[in-house]
Amino acid sequence: MYIGIITVPKAILYEAPTKETVSDELLSGWTVTVEQECGTFLRVVTDYDYRGWLEKGTIRKVSSDFLMRWNQTSKTTLLCPKTTDILRTPKVQAPVLSTLFMGSKVMLCDDAKATDNGWQKIRAANGICGYVPAIALLPPVCLNSGASNPPFNDFLLQNEWAIRSEVLNYAMLFLGTQYRWGGKTAMGIDCSGLTFMSYYMCGIIIYRDAKIQEGFPVHEIPFSQIKPADLLYFPGHVALYLGNEKYIHCTGNLKSFGCVINSLCPEDEDYRADLAESLLAVGSVF
What we know:
Layout: E1 2-6, E2 10-14, E3 22-27, E4 31-38, E5 41-46, E6 51-55, E7 59-61, H1 64-70, E8 76-78, E9 83-87, E10 96-101, E11 105-108, E12 119-123, E13 129-133, H2 150-158, H3 160-173, E14 184-185, E15 188-189, H4 191-200, E16 219-221, E17 231-234, E18 237-243, E19 246-251, E20 258-263, H5 273-276, E21 281-284
Antiparallel strand pairs: 1-4, 1-7, 2-3, 4-5, 5-6, 8-11, 9-10, 11-12, 12-13, 14-15, 16-21, 17-18, 17-21, 18-19, 19-20
């Protein structure tokens, strides 16, 4: 058993070492615990308790010293645009060294602060060093499940409406993105990928599935208490509530394929009766 780090822009997590069924996507700079090897595949568990199989070439083993540096919030951060080019030099005309997705984790280089013209030198998990716009980087963030963590829960309550707004801002960035089972990026995303990434970018790790899971911060609330950014759970599906009976979700329904906005109100043109009539639960982290 050892710790590995994702070194490709996105790695596919499979249910079995056969590449037949996709389970999830992991992004550059995310770490996993490797539990088992099987040919060219590795069985791993993610930081958010998802298990599956990765191809060996998508990760590399890291030392405890490296992991300590990588997890220092003063040294590492997340990319926040849908995609970000890492450039060889700090100018827009420079060659592209790599392109990473929103949520990818990168390290700020020790030898460079943000330049006067707005560039920041960073190191990606695959070792590539280059420049990105400083505004493409989140302030250093400590990801937290929120469960059984009073200080973090206090932070949520003190910043509730700012966090709710930011969660929905990230969700809206995916509007129009195609549906992709197990997806988490602008190339394609699924329903729980959308909800997971929207909260992940705000430093909150929720369960990456269409259900309320014990040990994660989402808890059930009455529908009468629903607020924007709370979660709507349907059979095998999850959405983010926008307010005024509207919700944003990513759906594989061929009549509204992809990340779209629908309504719980029968009078609205974007009403989805199949979902509105099968609502199972409302969840909130607040």
